[in-house]
Every structure is written in structure tokens, then in C-alpha cells.
Design goal:
about 35% helix; about 300 residues; globular; alpha/beta
């Protein structure tokens, strides 16, 4: 944080009024900041909404390598009204923010930057996007009676733990292959989570009725999660944050055993929609057409 003003403030006044970043300007730019960005679906989602709402703006890929991130924030950030942020920049962008939301601080990552009143505001829409997507799919869900298992201990896990805490989930447990990452999670959330050893999860998984994969296992080109869901004590809700492929082996196992299930598409779309709320004050519609477009692009 201490380098932020050295890098940016020299440029702010002259660039802010010159570039297109005010709500009164008809033309504006949005984008996704990351490196590399060859597989991102964000432009398809956001340009669909720009067309649907007949807004004279554009959403583009902003491919910036880590070594060029400082120059981007000093020279180009005020071209944009807002940016989504993806790997590998979700942590490093903290250094350039004027304000950071509480959720971003808890999750330890920023996935949304809003340029407003000559300020850079960092937030994280993953937790709220996850919950909104889940409620849309299963409106009668009772969070308080859920015994949740989080698989993974990375940034996505932190977002999901935060989301479940906001909904007062009764019990939250976490398992991960790396014990070091579990220790880091335990330091953040302390007594609010329980740790389950990876070696024992195969026998303990039957005790959970909400199981969420927050790892990249099952993603296209990677090994699947090999958990047996045929001995659950009750019908469970199985969620895989992976959305490519649309049906991972984990989702197939859930469906085969007649559990409820959900892939990563609802979270993807809802966290994107919440960016619009911050940038434009619009909560865009997640239409069947948009879902179909995204699903077809993945097949």
C-alpha cells in the first residue's frame, strides 16, 4: 500500500479528466485484467449485456504481465470505468487501491476494480455471486442445517467459506492435500472451520450434506476428484466450481447417486453481474440465452 500514491498520484489529475471514465460519458470501457487471457469467458458475458442494454461501451481483454502491472496502473487504469481481475493479479492489485471492501480483505483477493470519483475501489464479488447462484438454483435451501465440506484451501475456498459464514451454515469443514495451506486457512478463520485430514476424507465424506469442490481438479485436462458419494447419510448438494467441462466427474458421481448438484456457471455469471452493480448501477439479467451461449462455447 505504501507505494500506491508514489505510483499513481502524479498521473491522476491530468489523466482522470482526459480519459473516458465518468458515468456522464456515453462511451466507456470495461475489461478483464489478467495474464494470460486466452480462455476467459468474461468478454462474451459482458458484451452480451452491453448489447442487451444498448449501452455504447466495450468490454475487452486487458492482458498485462506481472512485470508490467505497475506501469499499467500508472499509465492506463483511468481509461476504464471498471475492471474484473483474474490470475495472477488478484493479490498484487491491493497495492494500487484507494479503498478495499471488507469482503476482499477477508477473502484476500480482489476480482473487481471500480474507477469512481478519481479513486480505485477494490472489491470481491465471488462470495455474493456464489450465494446468489446457489439460491437461484435451489431457492428452498436451508443453510443452517447444512454440514459443509470444502475441498481445497486456495483463494476460491476462502471466498466460499466467507459466503457460508454469511449465511450461518451450521458447520464448515475443510480438506486439502497440502497441510500447509490448511494451516493458513485455520489462521484466518480460526474456530469457525474444522480441518479434515485428506487421508480420512474417503471415509468421512458420507457425513456431509453440502460438498463443494474449490480446487481445479476435474478441470479440462486435469484429473478428476475420486470420491464415492454412494454412502451419504442423506441426500446431499454437491457443487463443483469448475465449469469447463460442464459436467466434471464429480458432478457425474453426484447425479449417478441422485444427489442435487451444481456446476460453476451460476457463480461465474452472478459474480460478473455484481460487477455491473458496482460499475454501472445495473443488475443485468442472466437470461437463458446467455446461459446457453456460455454453455455452447464450452462444449
Amino acid at each position: 500500500m505504501k507505494y500506491k500514491h508514489i505510483i499513481i498520484n502524479i498521473y491522476k489529475q491530468k489523466k482522470y479528466f482526459k480519459l473516458m471514465n465518468t458515468k456522464n460519458n456515453k462511451d466507456f470501457k470495461l475489461g478483464v485484467l489478467g495474464y494470460p487471457l486466452s480462455h476467459t469467458l468474461s468478454p462474451m458475458i459482458h458484451n452480451y449485456w452491453l448489447s442487451s442494454y444498448e449501452l455504447n461501451g466495450v468490454y475487452e481483454k486487458v492482458e498485462v504481465s506481472p512485470k508490467n502491472l505497475r506501469n499499467f496502473f500508472s499509465d492506463n487504469i483511468f481509461q476504464y470505468r471498471g475492471l474484473n481481475v483474474t490470475i495472477p493479479h488478484k493479490v498484487d492489485v491491493f497495492n494500487y487501491m484507494d479503498e478495499v471492501s471488507d469482503s476482499a480483505k477477508v477473502i484476500g483477493a480482489i476480482n473487481c476494480i471500480t474507477v469512481s470519483d478519481n479513486k480505485l475501489i477494490g472489491s470481491n464479488t465471488d462470495a455474493d455471486g456464489f450465494i446468489q447462484g446457489l439460491i437461484n438454483a435451489y431457492s428452498s435451501i436451508n443453510f443452517e442445517n447444512k454440514n459443509a465440506l470444502i475441498i481445497g484451501a486456495g483463494g476460491a475456498s476462502r471466498a466460499i467459506i466467507h459466503a457460508l459464514q454469511m449465511k450461518s451454515v451450521g458447520n464448515i469443514s475443510v480438506t486439502n492435500r497440502s497441510h500447509d495451506r490448511l494451516k493458513s486457512l485455520k489462521q484466518i478463520f480460526d474456530e469457525k472451520i474444522s480441518i479434515v485430514d485428506w487421508e480420512s476424507i474417503y471415509t468421512q465424506i458420507k457425513n456431509f450434506n453440502l460438498i463443494i469442490n474449490c480446487t481445479s481438479l476435474g478441470m479440462l485436462g486435469k484429473d478428476d476428484i475420486k470420491f464415492d458419494l454412494s454412502h451419504q447419510k442423506e441426500k446431499s448438494l454437491v457443487i463443483d466450481l469448475v465449469y469447463n467441462p460442464l459436467e466434471t466427474g464429480f458432478i457425474v458421481e453426484a447425479r449417478r447417486n441422485h444427489h442435487d448438484y451444481l456446476n460453476g456457471i451460476p457463480m461465474l455469471l452472478n459474480q460478473a453481474a455484481l460487477s455491473w452493480v458496482r460499475w454501472l448501477g445495473i443488475n443485468p439479467r442472466i437470461t437463458d440465452e446467455l446461459i446457453s451461449n456460455i454453455s455452447n462455447s464450452i462444449k
